[in-house]
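seq:
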Amino acid sequence: MKVSITSKQQNNLMKRKEVSFSVDHSETGGTPTRAEVSNQLASLLKVKRELVYITNMQTKTGTMTTVGDANVYDSVEQAKNLEPKHIVNRNAVPEKTVQEEAPEENTEEE
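struct:
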C-alpha cells in the first residue's frame, strides 16, 4: 500500500490541515481500512495518529486506487469540537472484541 498526498492546505480558522490523498493498493489487493490509511498519513505528516481524521475515502471502480480527504488537527480537543460524531466514530481505533478472543463454545446438546 502506497499513500501519496495530492494536496495540502492549512486552514488557520479551523486550526487544521486539509489533506487530499490517493492510495495505490495494487500490492495488497483489497481496499485498505481507515486505520491503515490514518497510520500512513500520520507517518507522512509526522503527527500523532489521533490527530488525523479521514472524512472521505472512495475506491475508483475497476482500479486499485482509493482517493480521499482528511483533516489533521493541531490538538485532539479541537478535532472533537469540530468533527461530526460519525466521523469521530469512524476514525476510532478498532478494539478487539472479547468474542473474537474467547474460544467457541459447543452449542450442540449431547
